[in-house]
Amino acid sequence: ASCRSTCRSRSRFSSRRRAQLQPAQRGARGSALHGMARAMTNNMVVGVSEGFRRTLEIVGVGYRAAVKGKNVDLSLGFSHPVSYPLPEGVTAEVDKDGKLHLMSANKALLGSVAADIRRFRPPEPYKGKGVRYQGEQIIRKEGKARGKK
Predict the structure, then answer these.
(1) 112 phi and psi angles, rounded to 5 deg
(2) Strand 99-104 relative to strand 90-94, pairing
(3) How far is CA 124 from CA 35, 60, 119, in A?
(4) Are strands 90-94 and 9-13 parallel, antiparallel or unpaired?
(5) From 87's CA, which of 28, 77, 114, 118 has a CA 20 to 30 Å away?
(6) Does residue 44 have a pLDDT over 60?
(7) Per-position b or e across 18-53, b if 16+ CB within 10 A of its CB
């Protein structure tokens, strides 16, 4: 996500390794664009210095993930394995618990990749099987109630 065409902020860099952004427009729109430019700049700095990490939990009998080169191979209960090519700048690893860890310096790209992988088999509300973000709460439903015979 680039804000080059819409975010016109003036930036100054001081000798104390600080960047200052000043809004180019006044009013509500200028304030909103200034906040977006500040957040995106902060995400770039944090991404380069620390990096971002997103963890996906794969829940279900026989559901698993494996990283092979630049592809993530997923077994999600389909009749065929699903292979997802990782874009440039995103790395993945699978731990022994079956959790898929995605790492990148680009927060927007990382979120997009995690959402793409989750979309293959989102968690279902009855048994909770599927791919979910770590810490995501799944709203569970009751199954059908059996009637009297």
Answers:
(1) -65, -45
(2) antiparallel
(3) 36, 11, 12
(4) unpaired
(5) 77
(6) yes
(7) eeebebeeeeeeeeebbeebbebbebeeebeeeebe
